[in-house]
Design goal:
Elements (H helix, E strand, L loop, with lengths): L16 E5 L4 H12 L3 E6 L2 H13 L3 E6 L5 H15 L4 E4 L15 H27 L4 E6 L12 H20 L5 E8 L5 H4 L3 H10 L8 H12 L10 E4 L7
Parallel strand pairs: 1-2, 1-4, 2-3, 4-5, 5-6, 6-7
The structure holds nicotinamide-adenine-dinucleotide.
Nicotinamide-adenine-dinucleotide binds next to helix 1, helix 4 and helix 6.
């Protein structure tokens, strides 16, 4: 990972626990690794338990602290178990990154399968609600903490052919604003990160031609990296962003205004 030297192995989050959903891949994995390097004790939660374990192995091999748990964020029992694991392992839940998300294949709305719409809403929107619900209940017992929800460029504008995903991510942004204000006096900050197109392994699999096509659509001419998004999450979890709550943080190379 290409991090500025001054931040490598910093103590920014020493002794602070964090849950990260979807931590087995892409942005969630990069965020898990980065926060651990900065001292956080990480609960890596993913519906793909093997993927979560691989992230934990990467963290512990680098001297960091992390545990893995299988968690489907659309299931309230799984989500509660994730929060309980953070509290039982590390003593409290201090920070949270609600990152797990899926998209449906591009489709005209009248041809979008009802099950595909339902699943995207269940994981991306209901999952974020369930995580916030369990995390905030735990944080209120120990004085609060910062939370980041992973929205999307599709939470701020239209994503062509992606009606369900656009609706779910607009919902995540709406939840973020509502919850931020509800808990603003109780030391819980909630912000949303809105990435544009980020070159994860999943996207890389589409090949060089598609990457070139996507890059062309971004004003900077470049796709984002998971590590760049992780840096924004790190900032929003840190005290450096103490004034920010309820914000939509565009992390999209200018795509919002293209
Ligand atoms: P990814 O597919 O690389 O990783 C997502 C992870 O979430 C996977 O490990 C997967 O197993 C896990 N997951 C899926 N369903 C789950 C569930 N029900 N419960 C728990 N875990 C589950 O994805 P990514 O590209 O890193 O995306 C992460 C987040 O960022 C998502 O919310 C996505 O919508 C958002 N995002 C991504 C991009 C992008 O270009 N990659 C752009 C905007 C927003």
């Amino acid at each position: 990972m290409n991090q500025p030297a001054a931040l490598e192995g910093s103590t920014l989050f020493t002794d602070r626990s964090v849950v990260i959903t979807g931590g087995g891949s892409g942005i969630g994995r990069a965020t898990s690794v980065l926060l651990a390097r900065r001292g956080a004790r990480v609960v890596v939660a993913d519906v793909d338990e093997a993927a979560a374990r691989t992230t934990v192995d990467t963290i512990t091999a680098g001297g960091g602290e992390a545990v893995a748990i299988r968690c489907d964020v659309s299931d309230p029992t799984d989500v509660q178990a994730m929060v309980d694991l953070a509290v039982s392992t590390y003593g409290s839940l201090d920070m949270a990154v609600n990152n797990a998300g899926i998209a449906h294949a591009p489709s005209d709305l009248h041809e979008l399968a009802v099950e595909d719409f339902d699943r995207v809403i269940a994981v991306d929107l209901r999952g974020t609600f369930l995580c916030l619900r369990a995390e905030i209940a735990a944080m209120l017992t120990t004085g609060g903490g910062p939370i980041v929800n992973m929205a999307s460029n599709a939470g701020t504008k239209n994503a062509p052919g992606m009606a369900g995903y656009t609706a779910a991510k607009h919902g995540v942004v709406g939840l973020t604003k509502n919850v931020a204000l509800q808990y603003a006096r109780r030391n819980i900050r909630v912000n949303a990160v809105c990435p544009g197109t980020v070159l994860t392994e999943g996207l890389a699999a589409y090949g060089a031609d598609m990457q070139a096509h996507w890059s062309e659509m971004v004003p900077t001419g470049k796709l984002g990296t998971p590590e760049q998004v992780a840096e924004v999450v790190s900032f929003l979890l840190s005290d450096a962003s103490a004034m920010m709550t309820g914000a939509m943080v565009l992390t999209d190379g200018g795509l919002m205004y293209a």
